[in-house]
Amino acid sequence: MAAPLADSVRPSLLDDVVGQKHLIGTGKPLRKILDSGQIPNMIFYGPSGTGKTTVARIIAENTNMTLHKLNGTSASIADIKEIISEIGTFAGENGILLYLDEIQYLNKKQQQSLLEYIENGDITLIASTTENPYFAVFNAVISRSTVFEFKPPEPSEIEKAVYRAFSILSEKNNVEYEIEEGAAEHISKCCGGDVRKAVNTVELSALSGDVTASGVKITLETVKALAQRSNMRYDRDGDQHYDILSALQKSIRGSDENAAIHYAARLLEAGDLISLSRRLLVIASEDVGLAYPNAITIVKSCVDSAMQLGLPEARIPIAQAVILLATAPKSNSAYEAVNEAAADIRKGLAIDFPRCLQNKHFDGEDAQVKGQNYLYPHDYPDHYVEQQYMPDTLKGRVYYRYGDNKQEQSAKLYWDKIKGLKR
Q: Is the pLDDT of residue 195 over 80?
């Protein structure tokens, strides 16, 4: 069976790797380490198709160590023990380099089985993960390793790999590929920063191209049909899911309606209507809050409409909610207030209630003050009367501070006037 094109295109030199110049460019940290010849334990973290495996292979091929490859999705303790058994033997006399792909799928016991050997240098570990290693990898492994973050390459860098892939295919198949203007650029822009996906699209385009007298023509129309959804970078259970939701909320909080719509559209294109809707409901109270109290009502109506409509029509009320929240005045006063109140409760400061608030109308023999003495506010002008509501341990504590927006300042002016007259 023929090897995938992505494997054929994989570079053998660091200078040919697409992107990652912040790590492997001249004078950059990872490049300096590799040039020194002293390979430490390393964890490569980043999205799929950004070159983690490629760089690890290049490192392995430029050492005298015995290379072993394992994948966290299928590796077992027995596989790890088999590698450990080579320590001190002829097979491992120059050291053992273990490339462990998708390390996040190994359980704690499996990861721990490597600790002693990577610490004393019997095994040099190069692990890769698409998940945040500080959450997905056992802390003891992290502490014995250096983490390098791989980032999605720019489309201009990926375009070079696209042309290189067509060139390799042309030589391999003895076919001349005529690439229509804009086709390679479209592949590089639609792959979501994933070089592997871009190369896979090249392979599909070559199979789907129009046969001509001189070879095969790769049209922009063909490329668009192949790349329209297959190249979206989104994992509902991974970091990308939470990163996009975070980017959405921070864009709304920062009142950038255009960025907010962009991230909402990414979630909608991935079909993740539920996560998007839940986050918008949170934002309505956390970030807009009392500056525009009706926001939660409007957003709830938009979310309900979206759920009833389903995709693709759901995008319309969702867009309405996103733009409303992004352009609304902002206040986190309610969010801050409940957080401060909860903090006091966790400190054990919520012990009792003022006697006037208790739900009882009789006194025990030990009561120092007889009678509930509750003052009913509706019996007083402006429906207000001053009395103690806070427990004695928290008397005078202030949690809510009026925001500097029109809505809350109006309420502050109202209550300052009423409460000031009663003092």
A: yes
Average per-residue pLDDT for the chain: 84
Q: For residue 11, is the peptide bond before it cis, meaning its omega torsion is within 30 degrees of 0?
A: no
What's the full length of the chain, in residues?
A: 423
Q: Is the pLDDT of residue 233 over 60?
A: no
Q: How far apart are CA 20 and CA 18, in angstroms?
A: 7
Q: Tokens in use for 201?
A: 């699209």
Rg of the chain, C-alpha, whole Å: 31
CA distance 230 to 225: 10
419 band by pLDDT with thresholds 50, 70 and 90? confident
Contact status, residue 132 vs residue 47, Cβ threshold 8 Å: no
51 close to 20: Cβ distance less than 8 angstroms: yes
Q: Which residue reads 């460019």 in tokens?
A: 25
Indicate the helix (H) or strand (E) that contains 286.
none
Q: Are 40 and 144 in contact (CB under 8 A)?
A: no
For residue 423, pLDDT beyond 50? no
Q: CA of 91: how far to CAs of 64, 67, 81, 86, 208, in Å?
A: 11, 10, 15, 6, 47
Query: How far apart (Å, rounded) are the C-alpha atoms in residues 109 and 112?
Result: 5
- Amino acid code (one letter) for 351: I
Instruction: Give the C-alpha distances (Å, rounded to integers) separating 301 from 196, 274, 314, 321.
Output: 42, 14, 12, 9
For the chain, how far is it from start to end, CA to CA, in angstroms? 88
Cα 247 to Cα 224: distance, rounded to the nearest angstrom: 27
Closest C-alpha among 13, 22, 9 to residue 49: 9
At 217, list the tokens: 């023509």
Amino acid at 415: W
Burial profile 19-52: b = 16 or more Cβ within 10 angstroms, e = fewer: bbeebbeeeeebbebbeeeebebbbbbbbbbbbb
Q: Do 281 and 300 meet the contact criterion of CB atoms below 8 Å apart?
A: yes
Residue 309 CA, distance from chain mean position: 28
Confidence of residue 286 (pLDDT cuts 50, 70, 90): very high
What pTM does this model have? 0.58
**Calpha distance 55→351 (Å, rounded):** 60
Task: Tell me: pLDDT of 345 over 50.
Answer: yes
SS (H, E, C) 196-232: HHHHHHHHHHHHHCEECCCCEEECHHHHHHHHCCCCC
Residue 92 · residue 124 · CB < 8 Å: no
Q: What is the arithmetic mean of pLDDT over 369-380?
A: 78
